[in-house]
Amino acid sequence: MIFDTHAHYDDDQFDEDRDELLSHFKEKGVELVVNVCSSLESLQGTKELMETYDFIYGAVGIHPNEVGTLNEEQFKVLKEMAMHEKAAAIGETGLDYYWNEPDSSIQKKWFERQVELAKEMKKPVIVHSRDAAADTLDMIKALKAADAGGVVHCFSYGKEMAREYLDMGFYLGVGGVITFKNAKKLKEVVAYAPLEFLVLETDCPYLAPEPNRGKRNTSLNLEYVAEQIAMIKQITKEEVIEKTFANGTKLYGIG
Question: Is the pTM of this model over 0.70?
Answer without folding.
Answer: yes
